[in-house]
Amino acid sequence: MSQMSHTSFASFSHAAQQAQQWVNELAKDLCWSEPSACRLLRSVLHTVRDWQSPEEMADLSAQLPVLVRGIYFEGWNPSAPASERKKHDFVVSVRNSFGYDDEVDFDVAINAVFKLLDRHISHGEIVRIRNPMKKSLRKLWPVD
Questions:
Q1: Is 20 a residue whose pLDDT tops 80?
Q2: Cα–Cα dist 77/62, whole Å
Q3: For 131, phi and psi rounded to 5 degrees?
Q4: What residues contact residue 113 under an 8 Å CB cut-off, 6+ apart?
Q5: Is the distance from CB of 29 to CB of 116 less than 8 angstroms?
């Protein structure tokens, strides 16, 4: 029993470290506080999630660190109606979830999250998420 508890704690600790690494990277990229970066990551992930099919959601979630995956699915309502797929609607959704802040350039902030995903998610998965997006939104997620 002791061995199993130690293994479980080590796995949980590793998951927390991975999630913290993502938040730290985003905070550094934007020169933001960690709580604000975490809130932004959550807002963008929720919007990306809500714009995907269940199959696409599952594929992306499989590549997220365990705790980030929990954030991704937090509050998910599979019966919620699909929203418009225009860049403006995406940005408004992120801004509404994040909380309005007139000092935040949401195009820059969303782009920073997309760059973070580029660093940690396979290129093939990024292409599958990005390609169905409207051209105006894809400009926030440039291909390397």
A1: yes
A2: 19
A3: -60, -40
A4: 26, 40, 41, 44, 45
A5: yes
Residue found by looking up tokens 């909380």 in the block:
99
Residues in the chain, total? 144
pLDDT band per the 50, 70, 90 thresholds, residue 98:
very high
Q: What are the residue ranges of helices labelled H in the chain? A: 2-30, 34-50, 54-61, 66-73, 87-98, 106-120, 123-130, 135-138
Question: Among 116, 123, 120, 121, which Cα is nearest to 144's?
Answer: 123
Q: Model pTM greater than 0.85?
A: yes
| Residue type at 143 in one-letter notation | V
The residue behind tokens 């809500």 is 50
CA-CA distances (angstroms) from residue 18 to 13, 26, 66, 94, 125?
A: 9, 13, 8, 23, 19
Query: In whole angstroms, how far apart are CA 35 and each of 32, 84, 123?
Result: 8, 29, 28
